[in-house]
Amino acid sequence: MSRVAKRFYRVDSLHGLDNLDRGESAFEENRWVFEISHEAANKVGGIYQVIRSKCSASVEELGDQYILLGPYKETSVRTEVELGDFPSHSPLTAAVNNLRAEGWRVHPGRWLVDGSPQIILFDIGSASGRLDEYKHELYENTKIGIPNGDVECNDAVLFGVMVARFIEEFRAEVVNFSDAKPRVCAHFHEWLAGVGLITLRMRSVDVATVFTTHATLLGRFLCAGAVDFYNNLDKFNIDEEAGRRGIYHRYCMERCAAHLSHTFTTVSEITGIEAEHLLKRKPDIITPNGLNVKKFSALHEFQNLHALSKEKINDFIRGHFYGFMDFDLDNTLYFFIAGRYEFGNKGADIYIEALARLNHYMKASGTNKTVIAFMIFPAKTNNFNIESLRGQAVTKSLRDTIHDIQAKIGKRMYEICLTGRLPDSEELLLKEETVRLKRCIFAAQRKSLPPITTHNVCDDTVDPVLNALRRCRLFNDPHDRVKVIFHPEFLSVTNPLFGMDYEEFVRGCHLGVFPSYYEPWGYTPAECTVMGIPSVTTNLSGFGCFMAEHIADPMSYGIYIIDRRYIGLEESVRQLAQNLFEFVQLNRRQRIIQRNRTERLSELLDWKILGTYYRQARQHSLGIMYPELAPEEEAAGAGRLNYPRPLSEPPSPTSSRATTPAPSEVGSDDEDSIDSEAELEELGVASANGSTVSSR
């Protein structure tokens, strides 16, 4: 197999990409797909990212036969949606006009994201006058009672009824616009949109339905209570647990939607197990979450971005650790964890414990490397602390002073050299400039240790991250090889400390650590993978299970999967600490090779590939609704996207071999990971013409 073929053979078995015809076949067959979510053009949670990133692939497949339905939120619409009526000859326009005739405010337009999909937004306030009537209809048919005081559920009822009424009108009108029999599929996300599905089935509308749960409602509540969730799934008294938490009616709405849908899906195998026990229905199809992947034209480009972003982080570190810069930034690794501030669910507890053990391992081994571990969780604060701001000001003053003196030295050197002689040292650095430098150096000294947090955290005595750091005695002591920084705020370019957004920060780090206990999918490690950054995940996250299924040796591709399901907490912490220590032992060349491998996995997470599972779910529901459309044999989704073990030894060091991976008979890391002279330069090895470039 040639080196070029080797690049692509991993996905040769993929099929279904010929369906990306921008809706031509769907138009001829009169197929329509509605995707319904409370987070369509409404950024309130993680499902927004799922819907938003999938739009481009959905439009590539279905064109204008694909329509999003969501609630009308004035603040979001101003910046995210271009409002405007659809063409007059469209059945969508006829259905919209019918609803407007009933006094409902309906807003069609296009969502301003990749793909520019059609979207219809419903102003639920315009239907609120008949709320009691809709709730009574729901109760008469399902015996689900909605408390008057639950505003969120009342809004879900209004939204669901408006969506169902629109689809009912559309189904009645669409027969007048084509000779082909209409095939309509409505895909609902989460319990907040589930009332629409329930209403469609109550009214026997001729539409195929799909319901996707991204995380069960009760599962989130149970895990928030610090219970041994996965080992007791079959032991919970579901009704009692939901009633005790005051969410029984919401749980019933979710369970009803799951059972009434023609096709039920979850985002991962682990969530499917959860749904089978809590919702009492096994998912028909797993629909993993993807990303809108944009590949670089050359492999070395993302490596260059890593170097540029890392330098920005270096600038922050110089300011934060001023007076204690006794470590070499060229031998410093940046780890991070980020997400919602759910201390146990996100695995921050075992992350901090593993960092303490890693600190011990590194000191015992005598390594000259340093690890700086970031924890980015939004928490209540009283703004930045003084020490963090002072550090950035001190280093900026020193940097500006040096730049000014450099310019003056250069000018004096130029003038003296014009006279035909070399300048003396006294002529280069004047006495007053030496004094300026000394003042800056003295200002950069301090007695207190660098702070472990960048902000003044409210109620810091009960903050779980700070308490865990205190318990593990991670105080940024000069003798520690692991330093910690808790940043209780999401990153943005306006941040006065970092001055970079989250994506840029991730690119500059070396390893993302996400040892989550409850993570139905896990976008944070997926985003790391797409950006070529290795990550740690677990076998209790959807992402970790997905990677374990499709990759023969995930660790060789920079995906470290911690076992949090079949072993105890102590063993999980030990495994995480050992994996972190093994990563620290990698040399620069091995890390570059591993980043190249990690970036290759991005094709696994591309919606153009994973969208096939959504297509399979729609075909499944249409086959149930219209038996003549049922496939002769079960569709295979995206196939098994196997990534075999790399042709060379995995880059993790072991005691039985040298730090540089040993070549194998069939290939080497160079063959497996390098395909251009630019990459050879990155690795600092001889290129084809014999020249050598030193590795940074």
Question: Key terms for this structure?
Answer:
696 residues; alpha/beta; nine-stranded mixed beta sheet; 12% strand; elongated; disordered N terminus; disordered C terminus
Molecular structure report:
The protein has 696 residues and is an alpha/beta fold. Helices cover 45% and strands 12% of the residues. The chain has 26 helices and 17 strands. The chain has a nine-stranded mixed sheet with strand order 3-4-5-2-1-6-7-8-9, with helices on both faces. It has a six-stranded parallel sheet with strand order 14-11-10-15-16-17, sandwiched between helices. The model is unreliable at 1-15 and 649-696 (pLDDT under 50). Transfers the glycosyl residue from UDP-Glc to the non-reducing end of alpha-1,4-glucan. One of its GO terms (cellular component) is cytoplasm. This is Glycogen [starch] synthase.
